[in-house]
Amino acid sequence: ILKANGKGFCSGHAIGNNAVDYPEFVEGAKVMGTPWKPQTDLFVKPILNLWEFSKPTIAQVHGYCVGGGTHYGLTTDIVIAAEDAYFSYPPLQGFGMPSGECSIEPWIFMNWRRAAYYLYLAEVIDARRALEVGLVNEVVPRDQLDARVEAIARHIAQAPLTTLLATKANLKRAWELMGMRVHWQSSNDLVALASISKDVQQLIQTVFKDKVLPSEQARRQAAAAAQTDGGATA
Q1: Which of UniProt's keywords are assigned here (predicted)?
Q2: Contact indicator for 142, 82 with CB cutoff of 8 Å
């Protein structure tokens, strides 16, 4: 069971000064010209470790599950969400970062158009909507979340361990044959390229200058778009 003990499930990766928060990115860029290698180590390898965990996994999600936290909340085999849970990837609009490894779960569990809408607009999806579009298995009241997840785990554990291991391996292999692992591994290539582009760097500088979170910047940009031409979009 993967769960958190705070106000929310996970707020994602730190947004700040790379020299302070991610010194390995700065060092990697000096050596290789891009932070590709350290970004792969931080963003891709941990999620592959979760994907490769041989036993069944359950995410117990409450409150916020945003940014890089979404791949921990959505890559488990089963996701049980509290009624106060919500999902979003604000860094695309709010920090200029392509979704990278976080773009994979939406198109797997939703569909192309739903995933595009969710990612391009930095949409916030509440628990009920997440259930409707297939991101989570169940939604329960917050005070029943622990008990429900533990009950599901106990139910699963009644089966022979060998059977569970074989079943999970079978499920994973089907997705891997469709390219899921390769997609995860290659996702960071685009993130590394985008992160050094001029337009992305310009937005990052704006966010730091204004001292706002990516989620707030995403809301600002949505409001600005709504005011343009009376809300018309092209």
Answers
A1: Fatty acid metabolism, Lipid metabolism
A2: yes
Mode of pairing for the β-strands spanning 78-82 and 58-61? parallel
b/e for 164-196, b at 16 or more Cβ within 10 A? beeebeeebeeeeeeebbebbeebbeebbeebe
CA–CA distance, 76 with 73 (Å, rounded to integer): 7
- Give the amino acid at 134: G
Could you tell me which CATH class the domain 2-229 is placed in? alpha beta
Q: Give per-residue pLDDT as tens, 98-117.
A: 766 566 677 677 888 888 88
The pTM of the full predicted model, rounded to 2 decimals, is 0.83
Q: CB under 8 Å to 59, separation ≥6 — which residues?
A: 1, 2, 3, 9, 72, 73, 74, 75, 76, 78, 79, 80
Name the residue with tokens 């921990």: 72
| Domain parsing of the chain, residue ranges | 2-229
What integer pLDDT is reported at residue 18 of this predicted model? 59
**Total residues found in the chain within this entry:** 234
Task: Enumerate residues 6+ apart whose C-beta is below 8 A from 88.
Answer: 64, 66, 67, 70, 122, 123, 124, 125, 215
